[in-house]
Hints:
This protein has helices spanning 14-20, 26-32, 53-56, 70-74, 113-123, 143-156, 165-169, 195-202, 206-215, 220-231; strands spanning 41-45, 62-67, 82-86, 99-105, 124-135, 139-140, 180-181, 188-193, 238-250. With 252 residues, the protein is α/β, with parallel strands linked by helices. The chain is elongated and about 55 Å long.
Amino acid sequence: MAAEGFKDHFSTVAGTYANYRPFYPATLFNWLATLSDRHELAWDCGTGNGQAAVVLANHFHQVFASDASSSQIDKAIVHERVRYQVAVAQDSGLPERSVDLILVAQALHWFDLPAFYQEVQRVLHPDGAVVAVCYGVLQVEGEEVNHIVQEFYGQTLAPYWPPERRHVETAYQTLPFPFQTIDPPHLAMTTQWNLSQLLGYFRSWSAVVAFNKAMGYDPVEPLASLLTPVWGEPTVTRRMNWPLGIRAGRLA
């Protein structure tokens, strides 16, 4: 069950999402920790399975991690300093001026932005910061493999991506962000995956869920048939690279 008014693209794949989504680099969290002298409370808004929240807990005394999807919260990573709650972005229930850092990781494009920004104004401490992070289109090591992946993303799935996806492709630069700008570092998210891990990641995509619902079959199956002959041995891992888009700011 999702919170009222939330367009839920991921509850049906919450387990896959938890198992196969990549992790943000430690350098991102080290930088986030420098944005406020206070480290009492961070809010990970749109936490998903909590992968960012548990790392924030290394830098803040307490992390409040909210998501509108109860299925995502049910799969979240348990941590003693992370408190999870099902809640929409614009209604956190947090006290006024209580939050030292607000992080939105790969979720800002789903929000009711005017309402969320009003909530940011309410709960963010005057010395705090709000940061939105997204990761762009995956690039896979190996020209032939990457070509197949790009065709899958940009052609096979093109009609099935939600319209909000375009904001990720433009690194959130086209979204309003009414805060005093903080210049972010240039970062990327990387990992080494075998083919099975990559296919699991694809199955967590909202467009794959929509394709399956519309067409009645999993589009990752024919993709696997294309990738298997050019991948190499099943145990072979390849480098995955996602550019990170970051918008950061303070209260005006």
